[in-house]
Amino acid sequence: MSNKIALVTGGSRGLGRDMVISLAKKGLDVVITYHSNQEATIEVIKKIETIGQKAIALQLDVTLISTLDDFVSTLTNSLNSNFGTDKLDYVVNNGGFIYYISYADTSLEQFDDLINVHFKGPFFLTQKLLKNINDNGSIINVSSGLTRFSTSGFSTYAAMKGAMETLTRYQAQELGSRGIRSNIIAPGAIETDIMGGAVRDNKKKNTQLASHTALGRVGLPHDIGSVVAFLCTDDAKWINGQRIEISGGYNL
Questions:
Q1: Of the candidates 42, 163, 191, 225, which lies 20 to 30 Å from 51 by C-alpha distance?
Q2: Is 103 a residue of the active site?
Q3: For every residue of 18-78, which 3-state class applies, written as one string?
Q4: Is the pLDDT of residue 107 over 90?
């Protein structure tokens, strides 16, 4: 029996890197997409192979909607060549970035960048992948704690994530006839390199965020990756249409 396969966008660094490693530890093979950092992607693939799983990497800029059909075609060929199937079991829409900017100062260009990477891109990529997703597979989208509480500077980013939360429920409803589940995770503050490592490298900010968290610290990538890996198992077969916040109890 062949291993199940997960596709993770933005899997070469940050949360995505730990997601793919956590998935490999669960016995899944992985397809990683990366934007530009091929060197980091090669390192992640080597790590997955040491765990005993297979991984391939494909370049993708999810904001370029016109390229998605070509990406799906390349993906299908790569799946056949490397895994002997054109099917996936799990799609994790993780790739993205953040602009820290007030609502009043947000430009049309910044708005378009964020809607393309956090909503329009995942919307149409997943739609185009539906023929590749096995029945009884699963979609995992990524939101943010910032949809539950408001923090100045994140209005546009959070609005896009709110749209993904709504889409997730509709995916769960409309794809349920195929047994395909859709859930969305909402990380809190995590120590990664996003926004220049603002949470990881700024001790004052890190301490301030930890002081508002019930468990007394900010998150680490493994806190997120392990939940994504769980959602990509049969143990999570009855979880559907849910927003799962992973924040250690921030701003309770």
A1: 191
A2: no
A3: HHHHHHHHCCCEEEEEECCCHHHHHHHHHHHHHHCCCEEEEECCCCCHHHHHHHHHHHHHH
A4: yes
φ/ψ of 30, rounded to 5, equals -135, 140
Q: Which of 34, 90, 157, 250 is catalytic?
A: 157
Token pair 């991984």 is found at 55
Confidence bin at 193 (pLDDT 50/70/90) = low
Do residues 40 and 16 make contact, with C-beta atoms less than 8 angstroms apart? no
One-letter amino acid of 247: S
Residues 6+ apart with CB under 8 A from 111: 156
Collapsing DSSP states into helix, strand and coil, what is residue 171?
Answer: helix
Residues 94-120 have a mean pLDDT of 96
Nearest to 199 by CA among 60, 98, 78, 69: 98
107 token code pair: 């430009």
pLDDT digits over 30-53, tens only?
999 999 888 999 999 999 999 999
